[in-house]
Amino acid sequence: MNTKTAVRLTRQLRHPLPLQRTTIISRRQVVPSSTSSYHSYDHPTPPPYSDTAKSILSASLNHIPEHGFTRKSLSLGAKDAGYLSISTNLFPQGAFDLILYYLATSRLKLQDSVHGRDGHEQQWASGKIDVKERVKTLVFDRLRFNKESGVIKRWPEALAVMAQPTYVPQSFAELSRLADDIYFLAGDTSVDTTWYTKRASLAAIYAAAEVYQTQDQSAQNADTRVFVDSRFKELESAQTGVSSVAEWVGYTTHSFINVLRSKGAQI
Prior knowledge:
Elements: H1 2-10, E1 22-23, H2 27-30, E2 39-40, H3 51-60, H4 64-67, H5 71-80, H6 95-115, H7 121-124, H8 131-148, H9 155-162, H10 168-185, H11 195-213, H12 222-238, H13 242-262
Antiparallel strand pairs: 1-2
Helix pairs in contact: 1-13, 3-5, 6-8, 6-10, 10-11, 11-12, 11-13
């Protein structure tokens, strides 16, 4: 069962094309910005949001801490953006459309974490920090966005929505994009047999960390950092072969699913 779960996750990851890179969803396709897009391995470019949809979704993010990932937040966002509440019909998946928008914009913020003002790029230029540590830093950055945006207390609701069978494929696809983008931004250029397992392992670690973060009451999510460090150490111990890594990914993912089930998710 664990290995099958790992295979399910890795199937969401596209194999890299060594001589070709295509543009992933850019910041300009999600929110207006003068920042140029960056590239990652063989990610298809999804259709951009319309200006109306972007305005409503962006405004709706402000209401998530109070109203959660709900149509209520979308309605309030539409009002804030100057549109009628009926404009929320632009989002046939309702709350899940808002969740996807939050995930995409948060993922794209990692670009600024590296290349933006006071980003990691200058520190990493020395070459003294290896890819593994860079990856871990970006995982912490992405988790920090959950806390800074105020959505963390609402995240169990989002996890339950994403775990619904209808939305699982899109949820896993977005998680795989996050793992791929993190490795790309961390400077990983390897194209070998570990391409799948590295990303599947990272996706499993991040998914488990988000669940842990929803219960973390420590200052600055210090306990979550310890949790993530422990998972990376476990992964290093498992990296003796593809099969052992797959088993580790399967176990971690299965544990993550069990936590979701304990919260009422029907999966």
